[in-house]
Amino acid sequence: MLPIAFAPCYAHALPVGHRFPMLKYELLPEQLLYEGTATADDFFVAMPPPIEDILRVHQADYYQRLRLGQLTRQEERATGFPWSEALFQREITILGGTIEGARLALAHGVAFNIAGGTHHAFRARGEGFCLLNDQAAAAAWLLAHGHARRVLIVDLDVHQGNGTAEIFRHEPRVFTFSVHGARNYPARKETSDLDLPLPDDTDDASYLKLLAETLPRLLDEVKPDFVFYLAGVDVLATDKLGHLALSRAGCRQRDELVLNLCHRHQLPVQVSMGGGYSEHIADIVEAHANTYRVAAGIFS
């Protein structure tokens, strides 16, 4: 089984200019089912979690203002989204899908969220199209319920996981690792436990060499018993916002490296998909589909 969270897209909750990237959340399941990488039984519908699962990583005042639509205009501008009830429901549903994915990964080795990767959400604010931090909440859920003692977050989205770094700044049980474009968003970076900022136009060979030299060592040093993997495909050369130069094949090799290491070390891994902003939707869907194909080959 390859458990995959599917959350309602709520595309109508977003401004027209943001709806194109949301298409991947509908097209990706269709592609995986069409080609037989996944079956209908692999999918589960994401549901909002209990409020305490959110408040482990987010301040109660921020959550309540978000729930009631009381963010200031400045706070809304920072997220990139105008508030709506549908948008709030979308965010809590995505977060619930990642928590459930973490639970299923304990049983099946790997689990996915078609959405997620909201790593720019801080404890008391949102930014960069992220309002609530799904993998941070799931990591805190694992620790609170005794399902993990040490967690490693491997963030390979092209943008630094600044919100995740801030949330776990004083939490020694969670190690945050971010590989990202040095000159990309956010302009002001937070400090992860390990940051690897990359120059513009970093190619397959340079990227994969650095990751292959770093991740095995981290697994040995951190000794996690659970891994979260943020598998953004905005590292592609075709991405409009990424500024790196990975090919689709290089992006797939990245996934193979991460997922093979997790499998070899018998580490359950939850995967959230993160960013992807290539001009052609087929480039985004195909790169994301490769992550599932790789996992199906390794964990089946």
From TrEMBL:
Pfam families: Hist_deacetyl. The lineage of its organism: Bacteria, Pseudomonadati, Bacteroidota, Cytophagia, Cytophagales. Belongs to the histone deacetylase family. PANTHER family: HISTONE DEACETYLASE 12 (PTHR10625:SF19), HISTONE DEACETYLASE HDAC1-RELATED (PTHR10625). It comes from the Bacteria. Keywords: Hydrolase. Residues 43-290 form the Histone deacetylase domain. SUPFAM superfamilies: Arginase/deacetylase. This is Histone deacetylase. The keyword Protein biosynthesis does not apply.
